Amino acid sequence: MPQSLTIPPVHSDALWTIERGVSPIVATAIHDGHAVRKELEGLYALSSDERLREEDPFTEFISRDVPNRIVFHRSRFEVDINRGRDGAIYYAPEQAWGLTVWKDGLSSDDAKTSLQTHDDYYEVLLAFLKGIERWHGRFVVLDIHSYNHRRGGPAAAPTEQAKAPHINIGTSSLDRARWSHVLDVLTDHFQSFEIDGCRLDVRENIAFQGKGEQTRFIHEHFPLTGCAIAVEFKKFFMDEWTGKPDLDVLKKLRGIVASTVPLLEQALGSEQ
């Protein structure tokens, strides 16, 4: 694997990047983005670093070896693709971890432009997954995210392990009767790894329950053929206050995710 975390350059105005392979396994990194429209830059009450702390940097890197991928390049502080349209813009602090996002609010025209991105993304996602469905009959989407565990500050104690597993599997909208065999394969595989001598703590619906809009949307539109699983990595692969990554840990996580692909393909095929 390359030593660099960089990706091939994308146009500064790019909304997302899509890679299509010959596999029924898809990964998305829809909170990886940090870019915002130029006309919004002066409207934020938050600094770039403050926004970055609540984004999911390096989730693109973790997902890089999955054959089909969607990476969203805009910040969730412009439009949160993983929330329903009505909540996709953070107007109030209670929508954004208590943070005041805008200096003086957001105009209706600016909001309309951001929400158009939300509409367009889901239109593209639907078409993309219909193509995967045509080729393979069924598919698995790994909806990859990360989460903070040092909210008290850089010197404060982290969230206790009981409430913050290394990997949180979110399954709120998942049809367990239909997809438990896929979920079990994924969870068991993740649990089989150690990083720095520590067995990965992988649990379901602890820190998060997988209630994001994307998994809900997939299960609504592909109730019999689409298995979408939210995979939340605790930010033990980086310093969430400085943004500095631990490249060795990230490379291991990337390899672990890549190694799930043949197992998930086999699990899908075993039920056809």
What does this protein structure show overall?
The chain is 32% helix and 16% strand. With 272 residues, it is α/β, with parallel strands linked by helices. The protein has one domain (16-270): Zn-dependent exopeptidases (Aminopeptidase). Strands 1-3-2-4-9-5-8 form a seven-stranded mixed beta sheet, with helices on both faces. Strands 6-7 form a two-stranded antiparallel sheet. A hairpin with a 2-residue loop joins strand 6 and strand 7. Helix 4 (176-191) runs antiparallel to helix 6 (247-270). The protein is globular, with a radius of gyration of 18 Å.
Write the layout of secondary structure elements.
Blueprint: E1 16-19, E2 25-29, H1 48-53, H2 59-62, E3 68-72, H3 108-136, E4 139-147, E5 167-170, H4 176-191, E6 194-195, E7 198-199, E8 202-204, H5 213-221, E9 226-234, H6 247-270
Parallel strand pairs: 2-3, 2-4, 4-9, 5-8
Antiparallel strand pairs: 1-3, 5-9, 6-7
Helix pairs in contact: 4-6
Which strand order does the major sheet show? 1-3-2-4-9-5-8
- Tell me about the largest β-sheet: 7 strands, mixed
Class computed from helices, strands and strand pairing: alpha/beta
In CATH, the architecture is: 3-Layer(aba) Sandwich
